[in-house]
Design brief:
two-stranded antiparallel sheet; eight-stranded antiparallel beta sheet; about 25% helix; alpha+beta
């Protein structure tokens, strides 16, 4: 007899925008998010018996997200995601696990005539701040924070040689190359036993995100990289040292390749090796390097 395996359902792509208006100064602060809510629990009969009595409608999840955004802070996103996740496991006794993903989109305050504008903003990149909070009945709240979509490039200071070479290898060794990637860096916090514990940790969230971003950028720029693998490990080591309540760090770094173009066919024009100036950016296929850095013990 077949039986239902792991199952969950929810509402994806909930778009939320919130503005805070300081009546005294006239300064506005804005936050735009995309939220996903997924629920698990005693819901198997909705699949196997067409029993909708156990289904919290996905529209209810959307409306709940809007209401909680009105009633609670939406920053830092770690707190808001935890509030939403905990709401569903507290409110519906047959729901035992709730996972909430929050993507925070960039809105950077404009500078006009040398001064920060009180209510105008610009989207200055595709980078997002991402959070996943999981509320599990009797097991507390786990939170993963992340930087995603941060596109970086350096035009020197990267090499790749000494790798395995056999009858399938045509890749040449290089001692100087362009290095570019789109950073996806995440870190998992030690489990919080309650929502109050998450609230107490609020000052840590922005500080860790800023440190992780700064470490990622500075190490990428200054490391004389022998490989993406080694550079990303150095980044993770530093993040763990900077934030003692983080349990682990993970990176996913796809290679954005730039290939030299041989132009010697045109009047002997030199454009390879030390003479390379014009390159062809590649979209695919690409290398993909991933790792997780854990604390000892």
């Amino acid at each position: 007899m077949p039986q239902l395996g792991p199952a969950r359902y929810g509402k994806d792509n909930i778009r939320v925008y919130k503005v805070h208006r300081d009546e005294k100064t006239g300064v506005h602060d804005v936050v735009e998010m995309t939220v996903c809510v997924l629920l698990e629990g005693d819901i198997e009969t909705s699949y196997t018996k067409a029993d909708n009595s156990v289904v919290v409608p996905t529209d209810t999840m959307k409306q709940t997200t809007y209401i909680l955004a009105k009633e609670h802070p939406v920053t830092p996103p770690e707190l808001f995601a935890s509030i939403v996740a905990k709401h569903f496991t507290d409110t519906y006794k047959h729901i035992h696990h709730a996972t909430v993903n929050v993507i925070t989109h960039r809105w950077t305050r404009m500078t006009v005539d040398g001064k920060p504008h009180p209510h105008s903003f610009l989207r200055d990149g595709a980078e997002t701040r991402n959070v996943e909070a999981k509320s599990a009945e009797g097991k507390g709240i786990t939170v993963r924070s992340a930087i995603a979509g941060l596109l970086v490039l350096k035009s020197t200071g990267s090499a790749f040689h000494g790798f395995v070479q056999d009858e399938y290898t045509i890749l040449p060794e290089v001692w100087d190359r362009i290095l570019s990637t789109e950073v996806d860096c995440g870190w998992v916090w030690k489990t919080y036993q309650s929502l109050e514990d998450v609230k107490a940790a609020v000052p840590n969230f922005d500080e860790a995100w800023n440190k992780a971003r700064e470490i990622t950028l500075s190490t990428f720029a200054t490391d004389d990289s022998a490989s993406v693998q080694n550079t990303m490990y150095k980044m993770g080591e530093q993040i763990l040292a900077a934030a003692p309540t983080i349990a682990m760090v993970d990176y996913s770094l796809p290679n954005k390749h730039y290939f030299e173009i041989d132009l010697s066919w045109h009047k002997g024009l030199k454009n390879t090796g030390k003479d390379a100036e014009v390159y062809a950016p590649q979209s695919s296929p690409n290398g993909l390097i991933q790792c997780t850095i854990l604390r000892e013990g």
